[in-house]
Fold:
Amino acid sequence: IHHHASNLRTASLPSSALRQQAEEASKATPPAKRHASIISENTAVENDTNKPMPEPLLPPKRVLIVRHGQAQHNPRAEAAREAGCSFDEFLRLMELDDAHDAELTDLGENQAQTARERYALSDVELVVSSPLSRALRTADLVHPPSESSETAKKRRIAIEHFREINGKLLNAQRRARSDLFQKFPHWCFQAIPELDESWTEELESREDCSERGYRGLLWVLQQPEQNVLLVGHGGILNYTLNGHANVVLLDGRRQSSTDSESEEVRCVTKRF
Structure:
């Protein structure tokens, strides 16, 4: 999936000031206005001669978004969903198979390895992931860290914005940061607190989850790398990419794979 950020205009400020300005805007303004404070779409700013002309548009980013491979709590619930079960039944089955910070199944590992073989990822400059183990493991299988001392190390950063719909289920509760670092020593976990302070027994609302994912996309925009691999979860990716008012579909095309599985690949361009 290709996601292009377009119409991003900036004032004549150093990058540190822009970053601080974006952070202050995200805290101080409601969602509907927050988008406008960061992304300007050919509005009256361009027609006001009393204001300085904005700098040229920043180049678009290419973000390959991958949902983690099948995990321990997925098999029965996903089979039921494919058969048309209700959301309540889907949630009930996940609860029955629930596991703290659920790991990938053997099938999930194979799915990630297949994705690595199928897609050209040599140009990826930054790898971003949810801090849940199944997403981190998927990222490592899809785009393994370089073992060569002569190759520049690409940043691998885990951030909370892209973790699964939070609360209620133990598979949505992450490990302590120190435990994650022992398990995935090549990842940067500096952006997350030591303990999982956000998980509660109540399921996160669709609106809060969508907004959290959107803020994560804005964070990706602020990074210097142009080609990004992002690994997350089905729930938050659905709520953010298909349910947030500021993520707009510009183009969607479907193409059928020529392999025996007849897999359907969807190419989507969105602005956020």
Summary: Strands lie at 62-67, 126-129, 155-158, 227-232, 248-256, 264-271. The chain is about 35% helix and 15% strand. The CA atoms of residues 9 and 57 lie 6 Å apart.
